[in-house]
Amino acid sequence: MVIEDDILAKICADKRLEIARRQAVTSIEELKRQIKDVEKPRGFGRALMDAAAAGRPGLIAEIKKASPSGGMIREHFDPAALARAYAAGGAVCLSVLTDQPYFDGSPEHLKAARAAVKLPVLRKDFILDPWQIYESRAMGADCILLIMSALTDDEAHSLEELARALDMDVLVEVHDEAELQRALGLQTLLIGINNRNLKTMVTTLETTEKLSCTCPPDRFVISESGIKTHEDVLRLRKVCVSGFLVGESLMRRADVTAAVHELLGTG
Protein backbone atom coordinates (compact mmCIF):
# COMPACT_ATOMS: atom_id res chain seq x y z
CA MET A 1 0.00 0.00 0.00
CA VAL A 2 1.17 3.51 -0.79
CA ILE A 3 1.49 5.46 2.45
CA GLU A 4 4.16 7.28 4.40
CA ASP A 5 5.53 5.84 7.63
CA ASP A 6 3.78 8.33 9.91
CA ILE A 7 0.52 7.88 8.03
CA LEU A 8 0.95 4.12 8.28
CA ALA A 9 1.33 4.40 12.05
CA LYS A 10 -1.83 6.50 12.29
CA ILE A 11 -3.78 4.15 10.02
CA CYS A 12 -2.72 1.15 12.10
CA ALA A 13 -3.65 2.91 15.35
CA ASP A 14 -7.06 3.79 13.91
CA LYS A 15 -7.44 0.26 12.58
CA ARG A 16 -6.89 -1.28 16.01
CA LEU A 17 -9.64 0.93 17.43
CA GLU A 18 -11.91 -0.09 14.56
CA ILE A 19 -11.17 -3.78 15.16
CA ALA A 20 -12.07 -3.43 18.83
CA ARG A 21 -15.40 -1.77 17.94
CA ARG A 22 -16.27 -4.34 15.28
CA GLN A 23 -15.24 -7.29 17.46
CA ALA A 24 -17.58 -6.03 20.18
CA VAL A 25 -20.42 -6.39 17.68
CA THR A 26 -19.36 -9.59 15.91
CA SER A 27 -17.42 -12.24 17.82
CA ILE A 28 -14.93 -14.69 16.34
CA GLU A 29 -17.43 -17.43 17.13
CA GLU A 30 -20.03 -15.69 14.96
CA LEU A 31 -17.50 -15.27 12.15
CA LYS A 32 -16.68 -18.97 12.34
CA ARG A 33 -20.37 -19.73 11.89
CA GLN A 34 -20.51 -17.42 8.88
CA ILE A 35 -17.48 -19.09 7.32
CA LYS A 36 -19.36 -22.40 7.13
CA ASP A 37 -21.70 -20.86 4.54
CA VAL A 38 -18.97 -19.28 2.41
CA GLU A 39 -17.63 -20.83 -0.81
CA LYS A 40 -14.21 -22.43 -0.37
CA PRO A 41 -11.17 -20.33 -1.37
CA ARG A 42 -10.50 -20.27 -5.09
CA GLY A 43 -6.72 -20.59 -5.03
CA PHE A 44 -5.19 -17.13 -5.43
CA GLY A 45 -1.58 -18.28 -5.62
CA ARG A 46 -2.45 -21.21 -7.86
CA ALA A 47 -4.15 -18.90 -10.39
CA LEU A 48 -1.05 -16.72 -10.57
CA MET A 49 1.29 -19.67 -10.92
CA ASP A 50 -0.88 -21.27 -13.62
CA ALA A 51 -0.67 -18.02 -15.61
CA ALA A 52 3.11 -17.96 -15.23
CA ALA A 53 3.36 -21.59 -16.32
CA ALA A 54 1.40 -20.67 -19.44
CA GLY A 55 3.81 -17.82 -20.15
CA ARG A 56 1.33 -15.07 -19.28
CA PRO A 57 1.84 -12.20 -16.81
CA GLY A 58 -0.24 -12.68 -13.68
CA LEU A 59 -2.20 -9.45 -13.37
CA ILE A 60 -3.84 -8.71 -10.03
CA ALA A 61 -6.24 -5.92 -11.00
CA GLU A 62 -7.22 -3.66 -8.12
CA ILE A 63 -10.62 -2.23 -7.30
CA LYS A 64 -9.99 0.96 -5.35
CA LYS A 65 -12.22 4.01 -5.06
CA ALA A 66 -9.81 6.40 -3.31
CA SER A 67 -6.45 6.59 -1.54
CA PRO A 68 -4.67 8.92 0.91
CA SER A 69 -2.16 9.97 -1.75
CA GLY A 70 -4.41 9.99 -4.83
CA GLY A 71 -7.68 11.24 -3.38
CA MET A 72 -10.84 10.20 -5.22
CA ILE A 73 -9.78 7.84 -8.00
CA ARG A 74 -13.12 6.79 -9.48
CA GLU A 75 -16.31 8.73 -8.81
CA HIS A 76 -18.69 6.29 -10.50
CA PHE A 77 -17.75 3.12 -8.65
CA ASP A 78 -19.38 -0.26 -9.30
CA PRO A 79 -17.25 -3.13 -7.91
CA ALA A 80 -19.18 -5.86 -9.72
CA ALA A 81 -18.98 -4.10 -13.10
CA LEU A 82 -15.28 -3.37 -12.56
CA ALA A 83 -14.64 -7.02 -11.69
CA ARG A 84 -16.34 -8.17 -14.88
CA ALA A 85 -14.41 -5.62 -16.93
CA TYR A 86 -11.11 -6.70 -15.42
CA ALA A 87 -11.90 -10.37 -16.06
CA ALA A 88 -12.82 -9.60 -19.67
CA GLY A 89 -9.47 -7.87 -20.12
CA GLY A 90 -7.47 -10.85 -18.90
CA ALA A 91 -6.81 -10.22 -15.20
CA VAL A 92 -5.86 -13.38 -13.32
CA CYS A 93 -6.90 -12.20 -9.84
CA LEU A 94 -8.56 -9.22 -8.19
CA SER A 95 -7.51 -7.04 -5.28
CA VAL A 96 -10.26 -5.15 -3.43
CA LEU A 97 -9.73 -2.38 -0.87
CA THR A 98 -11.90 -2.86 2.20
CA ASP A 99 -10.54 -0.07 4.43
CA GLN A 100 -13.18 2.65 4.73
CA PRO A 101 -11.62 5.68 6.48
CA TYR A 102 -8.60 6.06 4.20
CA PHE A 103 -9.58 4.26 0.98
CA ASP A 104 -13.38 4.56 0.96
CA GLY A 105 -13.51 0.78 0.77
CA SER A 106 -15.90 -1.76 2.23
CA PRO A 107 -16.26 -5.51 2.74
CA GLU A 108 -19.34 -5.17 0.55
CA HIS A 109 -17.10 -4.13 -2.34
CA LEU A 110 -15.20 -7.40 -2.04
CA LYS A 111 -18.38 -9.46 -1.79
CA ALA A 112 -19.87 -7.79 -4.86
CA ALA A 113 -16.69 -8.15 -6.94
CA ARG A 114 -16.20 -11.79 -6.02
CA ALA A 115 -19.82 -12.69 -6.74
CA ALA A 116 -19.58 -11.16 -10.20
CA VAL A 117 -16.66 -13.28 -11.50
CA LYS A 118 -14.78 -16.54 -10.93
CA LEU A 119 -11.43 -14.88 -10.20
CA PRO A 120 -9.74 -15.29 -6.80
CA VAL A 121 -9.79 -12.14 -4.68
CA LEU A 122 -7.23 -10.54 -2.38
CA ARG A 123 -8.54 -8.55 0.58
CA LYS A 124 -6.44 -5.37 0.53
CA ASP A 125 -6.48 -3.94 4.04
CA PHE A 126 -4.31 -3.46 7.11
CA ILE A 127 -4.40 -6.90 8.70
CA LEU A 128 -3.20 -6.62 12.30
CA ASP A 129 -5.33 -8.97 14.37
CA PRO A 130 -6.53 -12.60 14.19
CA TRP A 131 -10.14 -11.37 14.24
CA GLN A 132 -9.55 -9.86 10.79
CA ILE A 133 -8.41 -13.19 9.41
CA TYR A 134 -11.73 -14.78 10.33
CA GLU A 135 -13.54 -11.69 9.02
CA SER A 136 -11.64 -11.94 5.73
CA ARG A 137 -12.68 -15.55 5.17
CA ALA A 138 -16.26 -14.78 6.23
CA MET A 139 -16.52 -12.06 3.57
CA GLY A 140 -15.15 -14.47 0.94
CA ALA A 141 -11.52 -13.40 0.62
CA ASP A 142 -9.26 -15.98 -1.03
CA CYS A 143 -6.04 -14.24 0.03
CA ILE A 144 -4.97 -11.66 2.58
CA LEU A 145 -2.22 -9.04 2.55
CA LEU A 146 0.40 -8.86 5.29
CA ILE A 147 2.48 -5.65 5.26
CA MET A 148 5.83 -6.32 6.92
CA SER A 149 6.33 -2.65 7.82
CA ALA A 150 3.16 -2.82 9.92
CA LEU A 151 3.91 -6.09 11.72
CA THR A 152 6.48 -7.71 13.97
CA ASP A 153 7.87 -11.08 12.91
CA ASP A 154 5.79 -12.86 15.56
CA GLU A 155 2.61 -11.11 14.41
CA ALA A 156 3.28 -11.93 10.77
CA HIS A 157 3.93 -15.60 11.55
CA SER A 158 0.81 -16.03 13.69
CA LEU A 159 -1.45 -14.24 11.20
CA GLU A 160 -0.06 -16.28 8.32
CA GLU A 161 -0.54 -19.52 10.24
CA LEU A 162 -4.19 -18.72 10.92
CA ALA A 163 -4.86 -17.68 7.31
CA ARG A 164 -3.35 -20.92 6.03
CA ALA A 165 -5.44 -22.89 8.53
CA LEU A 166 -8.49 -21.32 6.87
CA ASP A 167 -7.13 -22.30 3.42
CA MET A 168 -6.42 -18.72 2.37
CA ASP A 169 -3.27 -17.65 0.58
CA VAL A 170 -1.03 -14.88 1.91
CA LEU A 171 0.64 -12.10 -0.06
CA VAL A 172 3.41 -10.54 2.01
CA GLU A 173 4.44 -7.01 1.06
CA VAL A 174 8.00 -5.66 1.40
CA HIS A 175 9.67 -2.38 0.56
CA ASP A 176 13.39 -2.98 1.16
CA GLU A 177 16.02 -5.67 1.68
CA ALA A 178 15.49 -5.92 5.46
CA GLU A 179 11.75 -6.49 5.06
CA LEU A 180 12.37 -9.01 2.28
CA GLN A 181 14.65 -11.06 4.51
CA ARG A 182 11.99 -11.01 7.24
CA ALA A 183 9.31 -12.03 4.76
CA LEU A 184 11.39 -14.99 3.58
CA GLY A 185 10.94 -16.44 7.05
CA LEU A 186 7.26 -16.95 6.30
CA GLN A 187 5.86 -19.96 4.47
CA THR A 188 4.10 -18.07 1.69
CA LEU A 189 5.64 -18.11 -1.77
CA LEU A 190 3.93 -14.83 -2.75
CA ILE A 191 6.29 -11.88 -2.30
CA GLY A 192 4.95 -8.44 -3.18
CA ILE A 193 7.55 -5.73 -3.78
CA ASN A 194 6.22 -2.19 -3.45
CA ASN A 195 8.06 0.19 -5.78
CA ARG A 196 7.18 3.26 -3.74
CA ASN A 197 9.64 4.64 -1.20
CA LEU A 198 7.49 5.24 1.86
CA LYS A 199 9.68 8.07 3.11
CA THR A 200 10.10 10.12 -0.06
CA MET A 201 6.95 8.86 -1.84
CA VAL A 202 9.08 8.48 -4.97
CA THR A 203 8.14 5.48 -7.11
CA THR A 204 10.73 3.63 -9.16
CA LEU A 205 10.61 0.22 -10.79
CA GLU A 206 14.27 -0.14 -9.83
CA THR A 207 13.07 -1.22 -6.39
CA THR A 208 11.63 -4.40 -7.85
CA GLU A 209 14.62 -4.87 -10.14
CA LYS A 210 16.97 -4.68 -7.17
CA LEU A 211 15.04 -6.82 -4.68
CA SER A 212 13.91 -9.47 -7.16
CA CYS A 213 17.56 -10.36 -7.73
CA THR A 214 17.93 -11.39 -4.07
CA CYS A 215 14.64 -13.28 -3.92
CA PRO A 216 15.01 -17.09 -3.96
CA PRO A 217 13.84 -18.72 -7.21
CA ASP A 218 11.13 -20.69 -5.42
CA ARG A 219 9.28 -17.48 -4.51
CA PHE A 220 6.69 -15.87 -6.77
CA VAL A 221 7.55 -12.19 -7.15
CA ILE A 222 4.75 -9.65 -7.58
CA SER A 223 5.61 -6.05 -8.40
CA GLU A 224 3.35 -3.35 -6.95
CA SER A 225 2.96 0.40 -7.62
CA GLY A 226 4.14 2.50 -10.55
CA ILE A 227 3.26 -0.01 -13.27
CA LYS A 228 1.48 1.92 -16.00
CA THR A 229 2.40 0.58 -19.44
CA HIS A 230 3.06 -2.63 -21.31
CA GLU A 231 6.70 -1.55 -21.51
CA ASP A 232 6.79 -1.52 -17.70
CA VAL A 233 5.49 -5.09 -17.65
CA LEU A 234 8.09 -6.21 -20.20
CA ARG A 235 10.85 -4.48 -18.24
CA LEU A 236 9.92 -6.24 -15.02
CA ARG A 237 9.47 -9.63 -16.63
CA LYS A 238 13.15 -9.47 -17.57
CA VAL A 239 14.02 -9.68 -13.86
CA CYS A 240 11.87 -12.75 -13.21
CA VAL A 241 8.76 -10.90 -12.06
CA SER A 242 5.69 -13.02 -12.73
CA GLY A 243 2.92 -11.02 -11.04
CA PHE A 244 1.78 -7.41 -11.28
CA LEU A 245 -0.57 -5.66 -8.88
CA VAL A 246 -1.99 -2.63 -10.68
CA GLY A 247 -4.78 -0.38 -9.52
CA GLU A 248 -4.81 3.39 -9.93
CA SER A 249 -3.55 3.54 -13.53
CA LEU A 250 -6.36 1.18 -14.55
CA MET A 251 -9.06 2.63 -12.30
CA ARG A 252 -8.61 6.12 -13.75
CA ARG A 253 -9.44 4.87 -17.25
CA ALA A 254 -13.04 5.01 -18.47
CA ASP A 255 -12.68 1.64 -20.23
CA VAL A 256 -10.81 -0.61 -17.82
CA THR A 257 -11.08 -3.65 -20.10
CA ALA A 258 -9.23 -1.77 -22.84
CA ALA A 259 -6.75 -0.52 -20.24
CA VAL A 260 -5.98 -4.08 -19.16
CA HIS A 261 -5.51 -5.20 -22.77
CA GLU A 262 -3.07 -2.34 -23.34
CA LEU A 263 -1.15 -3.13 -20.16
CA LEU A 264 -0.84 -6.81 -21.07
CA GLY A 265 -0.15 -6.14 -24.74
CA THR A 266 -3.19 -8.11 -25.85
CA GLY A 267 -5.26 -5.24 -27.24
Automatic annotation (TrEMBL):
Tell me what gene encodes this. trpC
Please state what class of enzyme this protein is: lyase
The record's listing under PROSITE patterns reads: IGPS
Q: Which InterPro entries match?
A: Aldolase_TIM (IPR013785), Indole-3-glycerol_P_synth (IPR045186), Indole-3-glycerol_P_synth_dom (IPR013798), Indole-3-GlycerolPSynthase_CS (IPR001468), RibuloseP-bd_barrel (IPR011060)
Task: Write out the similarity annotation.
Answer: Belongs to the TrpC family.
Q: Please name the CDD domains in this protein's record.
A: IGPS
What is this enzyme's EC?
Answer: 4.1.1.48
Tell me which UniProt keywords the record has, alphabetically: Amino-acid biosynthesis, Aromatic amino acid biosynthesis, Decarboxylase, Lyase, Tryptophan biosynthesis
Record protein name field: Indole-3-glycerol phosphate synthase
- Where are its TM segments located? none
- Pathway entry: Amino-acid biosynthesis; L-tryptophan biosynthesis; L-tryptophan from chorismate: step 4/5
HAMAP family tied to this protein: IGPS_B
